[in-house]
Amino acid sequence: EDPVLLTPEAANEKPYVAIIKVSLFFCFLRGHGIR
């Protein structure tokens, strides 16, 4: 269980919105990981 992903705000959002946010988050981490 990841407390960051299981916040009440995330649970109330539409599924595709949460997916987009997670995708952007991982792209952000990947971009910084290359440096």
Order of helices and strands: HH
What structural class should be given to the helix and strand makeup?
A: mainly alpha
Estimate the strand proportion.
under 5%
Mean pLDDT: 75
Largest sheet: none
- The portion of residues assigned to helices is over 70%
Distance between the termini: 29 Å
Q: Could you list the spans in which at least 5 consecutive residues all have pLDDT below 50?
A: none
Fold topology:
Blueprint: H1 8-12, H2 15-34
Describe this entry's structure for a reader.
Helices cover 71% and strands 0% of the residues. It contains two helices and no strands.
Short description:
0% of the residues are buried. It is built from 2 helices and no strands.
Any descriptors?
single chain; 35 residues; mainly alpha
